[in-house]
């Protein structure tokens, strides 16, 4: 009795696994098609300087304009792209679009200091990363100092010679480097001192202003003190309320990004609303 039940469960599991494999394969195929059909697009979210209220940078956030499912956020396809290797091509597409967009804004009289682009671990470890970035910068004419790369804390944590070398090569190119979602990786802090990075982005889970004991404010204060000591700039992520902006500013955080400033949007909308956004950003810090 027990045995047949056991077998039965295995059959179901195998069936489900096959179904899942097929769905994954289908999605992978669609993503490959989507990439060559120009369905991959990039939204941009502004970042403000907390002392002046000036919009200093933007973060590039990928979107997939799926023909039947509509606009898909990265959470729906980045993991898959990472697993099947499409992330390298996808990442290059985003990098190129972001650099081109910076040049386009410049032509419209809008110049941000930095466009930040997220790099996945596999993309970072790809042997072609450096040459591909060099090519994109050369072809788009964007100065390397205007490009920032966001890497994950878990990648930085690995702290191998290979990763360290690559970071130094990137820094030698002149691009800026940020640790994204800082604080979520439960990492040793020693890598911060050893790594050639410019910026840490404090994850939104720490910047919430709640009386939640799980999320005490002194963590942010401690991160800011650490960053000051190591001469790193700090961006606070996930700012949804003006109170968070005021608090971060008071604590001496350099920059802020979040829905209270603006949601990620198309580059066209960002240009169209630039003046409004700038006024709003200045008001937020006063
Ligand atoms: P991330 O790099 O930490 O980006 C910030 C995420 O928080 C974005 O989600 C953004 O829309 C969202 N966000 C911004 N402000 C607020 C706020 O005030 N409140 C809340 N609750 N959320 C806010 P999105 O666009 O869905 O991206 C999710 C993640 O996908 C990113 O997290 C990043 O890790 C990854 N990602 C995005 N674009 C790319 C890409 O081109 N390449 C790679 N490898 N990963 C990407
Ligand atoms: Mg990011
Ligand atoms: Mg982040
Ligand atoms: Mg995040």
TrEMBL record:
This is Diguanylate cyclase. Signal peptide: none annotated. It comes from the Bacteria. The chain holds residues 372 to 657 of 657 of the full protein. The lineage of its organism: Bacteria, Bacillati, Bacillota, Bacilli, Bacillales. Residues 24-278 form the EAL domain.
